[in-house]
Amino acid sequence: MDGSQSTTASTDEGVESSNEKESSPWTGQTKLLAYGIASAVLFGIGLLLTEPIGEMAVDVDLKPFFIPYVLIAINRFGLSTMSIGLGAALGEGVLDIFEGYELDDPIGFLGYFLGFTVFGWYLHEVADDPTRLRSLTFGAILGAFVQAVFEAGAFLIFESTAGPIDAVISTVGNTITHGLILGAVPLMILVKSLPTLEERISTLSNRVSES
Predict the structure, then answer these.
(1) Domain of 154?
(2) CB 86, CB 36: distance < 8 Å
(3) Tens-digit pLDDT profile for residues 94-134
(4) What's the pLDDT tens digit per position in 120-174?
(5) d(CA 205, CA 178)
(6) CA-CA distance, 68 to 178, in Å (whole number)?
(7) I need a labelling partner for 86 at 20 to 30 A (CA). Which of 59, 80, 107, 116 fits?
(8) How many domains does the chain divide into?
(9) Residue 104: inside a domain
(10) Torsion angle in degrees (nearest 10) through CA of 89, 145, 46, 35
(11) In Å, how far are 124, 183, 207 from 128, measured between CA atoms?
């Protein structure tokens, strides 16, 4: 009799737990949407603060890549990564529309999405420890490099006065400004100065959890 009651209680608890999950407002799709919106808004605000500085060299500027990087770092690699990357690309795209749409904008949009996705893939799927300075630095630079290649390619294709040297300068320069100066450096400072953030990232690493 006691065993039957225990089984019934367990079943009831399981049903209640299932109902709680189903009734929770934070479903998977809701979270993905929230990540995308947060990335778009925060990255857009960051761009409003950095873009007035202007270009530092040929097609080289400052963009706060650390903002999407932090959001990606605290979420397991997957759809959330792509949602955050897409959100950042949309944030940039909206500002581009207000500044004046250009033919190379779609290429840049794709570059942002892929660059941020590659960062998340490396940090959570490849790096031995995503909280190490080496992992954060390399991932940030790698993601920025992917985006910079697309940016430079679009610049070379659509800018009549641009040449191969300009494309190289653009790629190297944006990799440094986006991936290092406003990428890895602030990202490392935030991770190492906030223990809860570092702990969150370490628990999400697939490689750490497997070892």
Answers:
(1) 25-206
(2) yes
(3) 998 887 777 778 898 999 999 999 999 999 999 989 999 99
(4) 999 999 998 999 999 999 999 999 999 999 999 998 888 888 889 999 999 999 9
(5) 24
(6) 12
(7) 59
(8) 1
(9) yes
(10) 50
(11) 8, 20, 6
